[in-house]
Amino acid sequence: MGDRLEDGYDVVVVGGGAAGLNGALMLARSRRTVAVIDAGAPRNAPAEGVHGLLARDGMAPGELLERGRAEVRHYGGHAVEGEVVGARRDGDGDGFTVGLADGRAVRARRILVAAGLIDELPDIPGLAERWGRDVVHCPYCHGWEVRDRAIGVLATGPMPMAVHQAHLFRQLSASVVLLTDGRPAPSGEQAEELAARGIRVVEGEVAAVEAADDRIAGLRLADGTMVAREAVAVAPRMRARAGFLAGLGLHPVEHPMGVGEHIPAEPDGRTEVEGVWVAGNTTDLSAQVGAAAAAGAAAGARINADLIAEDTRAALAAYRAPFPAGGEAPPSGRAPLWPA
Length: 340
Ligand SMILES: Cc1cc2nc3c(=O)[nH]c(=O)nc-3n(C[C@H](O)[C@H](O)[C@H](O)COP(=O)(O)OP(=O)(O)OC[C@H]3O[C@@H](n4cnc5c(N)ncnc54)[C@H](O)[C@@H]3O)c2cc1C
Description:
This protein has 340 residues and is an alpha/beta fold. Helices cover 24% and strands 25% of the residues. Helix 1 runs parallel beside helix 6.
C-alpha cells in the first residue's frame, strides 16, 4: 500500500527501483521532503534473485525493493504508487509540476529520474516467454545459474558484441554455440578466436525458441534444423523509459556503444535541463543493481547540495534585506530565512 501524495516536495523521484530508492534514502536522511513515485515494474522482475550484490546475493528483487521502501519511509520519505506521464517547469521558474496517469499532480523543486529502461527482445517466437529464466542477457546476473549448460548465444545486435558475449559465456560453460541469425558470420581473427575456444558458429536465421517440460529444448532454424540448447543468451536493445520528460525538452539519444537509447548526464547525474537529474539504467544502460543504487545515492547527495546552495542564496538575500514585515513563517520545506 503506497503513501498519500502530498501537494509538493523538495524532490520527486520518478521510479522506485534501486537507483530511485537509494536517491530517496540519501535525501530523506538529509531531512529533505521526498516522494518516490513508482509504477511497480522493475527491470529484473522476471528474475528469481538479485546476484552479484554484496551481502544481498540471491535476494528476490521484490524483497530488496520492499526493504528499500521501508528504509526510505523510516526517515520520513514517501513511497507512492503511480505512473508519471509528464513534467513541466512551473511558470514562476521555481521548480516543476509532475503529472500522474490518474490525474494527480505534484510540485517539486528538483526531479530525480530513475525510471529504468525497456529491454527490447528479439521478435522470435518462444523467446520472450522464457526471459529472465533460461533466456538471459548478463553473465554476471545469471551466468552462474546457467553454468555448464549447453548455451546458445543469439546474435541480436552488432556482431562484435555477440562475439564478446559468446566469450563471456564460454567462461561459464564448455558448450557454447554462436547463432548468427542471418548476419554475416565472424571472419579472420575473430573466427579463429572462437574456434580456439571451442565456440561453434551456426549460420542461418532462427525461427523459434522451443521448450518442453518448462525448459528450453533448443533453437529451431528457418530451414528446420534444431540446435539443441538448454539456455539462450541475447543482447536486447535497451531503451531508457523517458517519454514523460519530453515536456521538459529532455529526450533519449542513441548510446555511443550502439546498444540502445539513454539520457546523457554528468557523472553525478546532472542533465542538460537544470533541476533534473538521472540515475540508474535511464542513463547508464549497463548498470547492475549495485551500480544503479550507487548512482542514485550520488545523485541524491548532489541534489541535496544543490538545494542547500539555493537555500543559502535565499537566506543570504533575506539576511541582507530589511527586517521582513509581520515576521510571517517561511514557506514550508525551506530552511528558515531568519531566526525564530
Ligand atoms: C532478467 C534480468 C535479471 C537481472 N538480474 C540482475 C542481477 O542478478 N543482479 C544485478 O545486479 N542486476 C540484474 N539485472 C539488472 C537490474 O535489473 C538493473 O540493474 C536494475 O533494475 C536497475 O535499477 P534502476 O533503478 O535503474 O531501474 P529499475 O529497477 O528498472 O526501476 C525503475 C522503476 O521505475 C518505474 N517506472 C518506470 N517508468 C515510470 C514512470 N513513468 N512513472 C513511475 N515509475 C516508473 C518502474 O516501474 C520501475 O519500478 C537484471 C536485469 C534483467 C532484465
